[in-house]
Amino acid sequence: MNPLNLAGRVLDRLEETLIATLMAAATLLIFVAVVHRYLAGMPLPGLQDWLLRIHLSWAQELCIFMFVWMAKFGAAYGVRTGIHVGVDVLVNRLAPARRKVMILFGLLAGALFTGIIATLGGIMVWKIGHTSQVSSDLEWPMWIVYLAIPLGSGLMCFRFLQVARCFNRDGELPHHDPGQVEGLDEPMDIAPGADNIHPLAGGTK
Description:
By secondary structure, the chain is mostly helical. Helix content is about 65%, strand content about 0%.
């Protein structure tokens, strides 16, 4: 396998793993914090005292940080898979040559914008890294939190350039089918007269 293709596949998998891990961890942490707050307010002898000794005041702050990281890398994932919402009614009415120029212009403009954000974010992280600024609850160095900006925007810039290169070569844009189920390669056998809610097996009711 081409080393560049291998590196691209590894990057794709790391991106997906990071997003899924952050999403699962944030969901689990919110659930635990809500259950803890609910049970700690109940007058249960022994259990209430034990729960009150467990401090989860940092959970909300950590969830915010995880959602910020998830959003930044999720935006890059959206560019790669074509799940971002776009209004292309007028662009699709253009002649093929002009349509290609407009799409490439939009992709390169997106790469320029995210590249600028990544650069400015990197400068900000560098400056904050030389201060003693920490988060209020976890007391983490804030440069670690803000690192999501240059990393996420840099990856998004790379994805814009990647999509632009593929479109210029093949004329194809990544397209997301909301009806597609990942892992389901073969089409479902839907009987005539069926709908999305009540599929009919073998054409019978």
